[in-house]
Queue: 4 jobs
Job 1
Amino acid sequence: MANAFGEGSNDDYLKYMIYKLPDDYRDQKLKLVPNGMEIETEYQEFLAAQIKSEQGDNYILETDAGEIKIAKKECYSRNPSKFDGVDDMSQLTQLSEATVLYNLRLRYMKDIIHTYSGLFCVVINPYQFFPIYTHFMINKYTGRRKEEVAPHVYAIAEGALTQMRDLSAQFRNQSILITGESGAGKTENTKRVIQYIATIAGRSNAAMGDIENQLIQLNPMLEAFGNAKTVKNNNSSRFGKFIEIQCQAN
């Protein structure tokens, strides 16, 4: 699985993992803050808007789609533009459903599918393949703290390995919970966690070099007993899955 996209490169890391603010984001900040709001359209999408005026309990807002009138109670405060596309949503000064979805959408529209929310890593299924599970990416996250690299499920796996190897904690067990609705990508992300752990373990123990393929090949057997086609997913896991990986100190 690690070779699915070849060796990978730093260009892939910069394109698919790093969110860059537009060059004119300072102008956007002056335009949208503090009067910037986010409104919910009929498509359940939150958009940035600017208050033009107030009419009782309503705002007259200027959006890219034109001028609209909307009740104040349906609006949400917007974060300063410098927080657009932020890696960790726990940094948002205004935290609401609107600001979370808005931030996730900004990143998703640039093909960046990983975003932190405190201790959690939110991964949006892009329904296409990105070269972000390569040998280069594994090396990029090996031995690095979560804060030193862009959000990735590999960073979560690396954090678990680091905690497990902590001598002061006497090699305490670690758990990674992967959850989401049907088609969210739980099975695929489980494979990526296994891929990372098996690859790192294989480097220090030649006998474990093939453990990654062994673990991945186990999935079709499990899927044969409990997978089914759904509206959102042609191969949906219809059962809970608990995987335990036992590691030695060396």
Job 2
Amino acid sequence: MEVLVNYAEAVAGGMARLPCDITPPAKADRVHLVIWYKEGLPSPIYSVDARNGSVEAGKHWSEENSLGHRAFFQATEPAKLTIESVKDGDSGVYRCRVDFGKSPTRNSKVNLTVIRRPLPRVTWWQDSTLLDDSYEVISERRVRNVLRIAQLQRKHLLATFTCQASNNNHLPPITADVTLDMNYKSEVRGEVTQLGLLTTEKVNQLLIELLFKQAQWSVAVKSTCC
């Protein structure tokens, strides 16, 4: 009988989820045993004994050398074996065997691929607009992207910029927000001009002309994400 093969991927250091269909073929039937194997190993690596009750309340066992305390089986749909702190050595083909009380045993396989942690891609965004994706590698495990804004304007006041870092498609990116607060400096110069004598008011009126000289913005916003 052909065995169904599923495919799963996980990032090294992250979490892997290996699906297994434990739904009984008949309504009057129920699960007795769930046993997990890994190709290349002579004995099971995980099991759930539900012969005396439900799978949720069953007795769980994990092989110490391969999974230890890193794995647990979740019976709620969709049922799956979850492996935490995934290692490169966890890659391989796993087989899930489900024994029912009345129905024939069901076998399914999962081919797990572990992705090593590549360097992250660091980008700057404002809302949904990409501003800068020109990051640089500064060490084996670190990258940097410095956002520079050469000419700040009033519209940039309290603007929020988001730095995103991601190295895979399986986990959401890490983000950090930077809100820009600016101090606008203007130079005010007053020039006083004496007007001629006003016969109606008998006073000298001074005209003050305020000349505003706008300062040039030359502020660089720098922030390193992650």
Job 3
Amino acid sequence: MFRFIALFCLVHVSFGTIIRGRVLVNGDANIVDMVPSGSQLIVRLEDTSIANASSIVIKQTEISNIVAFPFYYQIQVPNNISSALSYSLSALIKKGDVLVYVNEQHIPVKIGTESLITIDIPVMFIGEDRSLKPSLNNMKQSSWPELVGREGTYAVQYIKEKTGFTNVFTVLEGSLVTMDYRTDRVRVFVNKKGIVIQPPYIT
């Protein structure tokens, strides 16, 4: 009876814990690198309790059509997993079946009674083909003054085709917008007639 009580005290369970953070090139939040068009990010929460054995994937999240670092992820930890075991995070970026970025070693995660755990995951480029590592600095354009006076719908489609971005959209002049900076987003400001009124740019 006492053995059962002692064991119960050592084992906590998770109820709705969320793990979130950023995936960074070499762990540096200041590096803004592009990834190949059509790449996918996979972040996994794994049970690494048994030494010298393969880890067990408990939960994973997948984000498709990623564009440029840093990437943000979030994993909902399954309920009723034991805090007495060892867990870790891993991340990889692939294009099709080709690995492009991975983290060199798993990142330990201590799961207890916290509702939110924040962890950044560093990854490194492993692709042999250097064309799989495009640079943001190699983009031919970051703004499109030639679209001023054109229809907003045309401008959105034009920028998507030129950049491969999916996060391109019109914004009515005078509308409130967030002040965060995104390397994969272009806002196209239009008037009430849907005409572009200022050069769209990455923001």
Job 4
Amino acid sequence: MADENEDYSSLPLKTRLAHKIWKVRLNAYTEAEKLFSTLDPDTEAYVFNEYEPFLKKIASDANVAALEAGIGAVLKFVENTPNPTSPRDSILEAILEKCLVSTRAGVKTKSLELSLLLCEIDTPNPVIGKKLTIELYKWIGPALKPIISNLDPVLIKELESEFEKLPSQKPKPLRLLRSEMDIVPDDTDDQMDVDQPTDTVEDAQDISDEIDPWDLADPVQVLSKIPSDFYSNITSQKWKERKESLESLITILNSPKYADGSYDELVNALAGRISDTNILVAVLAANCVEKLSTGLRSGFASYSHIISKPLIDRMKEKKANVVTALNQAIISVFRSTGCQLKGFVDAISHGLSQKNPQIKSSTLKFFSECLKMTTERPSKGQIKEYVSISKPSIDDSDPTVRESGFELLGTLMKLVTEKALLPFIEGIDKAKEQKIKQYFETAVVQLAPQSAPKPKPKPQSTSAPGKKVLNSSSSSKPTLATSNNQKNTSSNTSNSSLPNNNYGAS
């Protein structure tokens, strides 16, 4: 086996690009990327021609770390070569077969960038670029839309029309790659670092289904784009100025991913507008909360306590568009915490303590959704707490509140099992218990059902065969013999169990 610690830098670059040790190839790809960035396409076009035959193999590297570096090199090649359309077909074949189904986010991101670059440079034949984008959409799905959002609006409309015609089921690879086949590699070092081979072609399809647009998007700097008069306008006495300030923010929040930063002032400002006397302003504020929490994801979790109570308080509204905006906002905030319920119990208790039945019913429905989505199974103490704040709702004078309460307890029962919940709702009448069980039967929760603990196996006796083990805790004592025969039997038995001390006696 080749020694990976050996210095291979003296080898020609072309030799290292095809080397059997992946670390050597990775370093060569990095060097090639720098080379392609500095070549003059007018005077050094011949150098690009010399490296073009390597591109497909680089974009199909079996090692994911090397592949990511390799795609970077190919990207620089296409950006700088005087004839970028020449290697297009071979590069795209490698991207479709290897890169788009990779489990490494960097590989997927760079390969998508490379694919779109090939579309962009293909101006003499825009039909090919359009077909390529449609083919990419077949494999990637909606995750591609944010990436093509900067294209010409007319072209986007044409593409979306073509996307709608595509079958809902994504295509499957027709064959496995050589790297996925059961072959013996030449180098043991490569064998330990390559992607794990898939057993079936369907497995590769499952990987492509997991592509998330958020992972592929570049984070947008939201805070730096907010106008200087935003915070004065959002608190203006004129509702139109408040509305316009939020509309300007909605425009800024038009990307799937936002950069981290200090959003305290912005979230507090939005919380204040959730309770705005003007319905339009309140809905816009809720829309902004939804977009911001969706774009920041876990980065928004620390602000959930600021916004959750104002959203619940506003749930007194009955208009469908307002209810929808509030629900979408608070569910998005809940998702940003990793669907962990502990940070929302205070806000839920606050909502259930209100006299308004609309607030109580909406809070219970939100509580039920949290239980369905949560990633943590409640402890006994948490079960007791959840029941104590929600159980009064099943005796409420409002039928909508009662029904929402039954649904909540039924969902909780599904999450923690019937056996775990029944002690906490003991004493309610049979009709109400039956309603809870009806919701229990139909509820669907994210966590897998909790299985009952297996009975512990009985301990096996460690005594020797044929012997009885006396229980030291037993109070029973052996009775005295009442006849000579019994005495002799007892004596013989006792003596036979003693060790023989007549060493050497005849």
